[in-house]
Amino acid sequence: MYKDLSAKNNCIICGKHCENGIIIKGKVICSSCEEKLVSCEIGTDFYEYYKDCIKKHLVPSILRDNVEMNEYLR
What we know:
Layout: E1 21-24, E2 27-30, H1 31-39, H2 45-73
Antiparallel strand pairs: 1-2
Protein name: Protein CsfB
Organism: Clostridium polyendosporum
Pfam families: Gin
């Protein structure tokens, strides 16, 4: 029933606790994963893995926010 508040600071890619990095829609990507993501080549297995992690964790909240905004505007 209660969410684990410590999980809020876990990287959505590697799952490790992080103190710094980027925050997108309340989700954290640690600076180490951010650096790897920026430097990897498109089409590699690493790139696909990072892309899938981002889709899994960010797309649902973006879609939910869009639905809520559309309902608000009606």
